Amino acid sequence: MAALSMASPQVRNRGTIGGNICNAVPSADSAPALLALNASVKIRGPKGERTLPLNEFFTGPRTTVLGEDELLYEILVPNQDPMSRSVYLKLSPRHSMDLAVVGVAAVGVREGESAKR
Known about the structure:
Elements: H1 9-14, H2 17-22, H3 30-36, E1 40-45, E2 48-53, H4 54-57, E3 58-60, E4 63-64, E5 71-76, E6 84-91, E7 102-109
Antiparallel strand pairs: 1-2, 1-5, 3-4, 6-7
């Protein structure tokens, strides 16, 4: 849902989710969804490789822990509970072509027996 709400089809076909989160703009569509899913990132540079939770990657608007000589090269999203459901909601003036005024992601896990369909 978050990926489909990003930019225009042309930008979605050329841009990357890694680039979207490395910009660290508060209006990024992919960040809330990845944070809700407890994603981690792998970073590599001349001093080696490190893996950290995405919630530790961002240090503020437009700032991350990424060093000038480092590259984010992998995003890890853990397997989700089969009973989980997730949603991403975006408020923007013109849907996908605009930056989010507010973007919210949530993940919930249903407990107990599954619903009959």
